[in-house]
Amino acid sequence: MDLAHSTGKYTLVRKLKDPKFSVDHLDRYGLLLLAGQRNFQFGVVDAEQQRCLLLEDYALPQSPEELVGTYRSIIEEHQLLMAGYWKSVKLAVKSPYFTLVPQAYLSSENIAHYLTLAVDFPDEHYSVYSQKHEEAGATMVFGAHKELVDRIKSTYPSHSIPLMYQGSSFIEGIRQVSSAEYYPVMYLHIDREYLTMVVIDDGKIILFNGSAYRKPQDLVKYTLSAFQKLNLNQNETKVVVWGNIPTKSDEYLALYRYIRQLSLGKKPDFLTFSHVFDEAPDHQYLDLYSLHLTE
Questions:
Q1: Is the pTM of this model over 0.90?
Q2: CATH fold of the domain at 1-179+266-295
Q3: Which of 117, 137, 208, 216 is deepest in the core (most CB within 10 A)?
Q4: CATH classification of 180-264 is 3.40.50.300, yes or no?
């Protein structure tokens, strides 16, 4: 693992590189970008070998007014991110502005209307986007920082880059790594002070939600509230945790006090990893890896 320096604008938290990675083969590789206000991760995947070759994870300062400038610095100071000859480039954003709309109720004429009904959406600086989930029979409608999206996309003018929502990538990932269950299972993605929650019952999404949190007790409150809403049993319902938290984090231990069928997620089997990636806990980066699955 290569831990680098901290600049005034961002900190490289983790860097993992497969010995098989070669800058001479970028035209065979897919670039995966996951952008948020608190963190930024990117990965490189060999599309032919279905192998993850590179991962970098950055922590960003809590300074929304400097967000675009911080990303500009990361990209312009990184030789790989400035390269334009990737086989593909995929981009997903983390955002608190989202809603999952059943396809039967969706009208494409004014898709922003669904978002304004669900959240207090800031029109300034943000634009509305959507992504269809065929298997779920629903469309994710979400808001993203327009200037940030435009800045990242402009780095790769030869690529047509569809914009995705981080929660959508997480949904696709858990559909791939989870076994068929005929009873409700809860999947949690715990990011840096943000929780994404998905409950799937017999292959159908019955709950999708997200919320900021400040302390582990908040996670317990939000999780138990969902249990009560869906009439789930705390001793029997499986809860699988992924995200950017340590293996024995305060968040995980707090949840374990109330939920007995609690476990950490595993590395996905739709990609292969060298021994170098053993240094990253298995339950981390599923949302980034799963961008490889999306179209």
A1: yes
A2: Nucleotidyltransferase; domain 5 (3.30.420)
A3: 208
A4: no
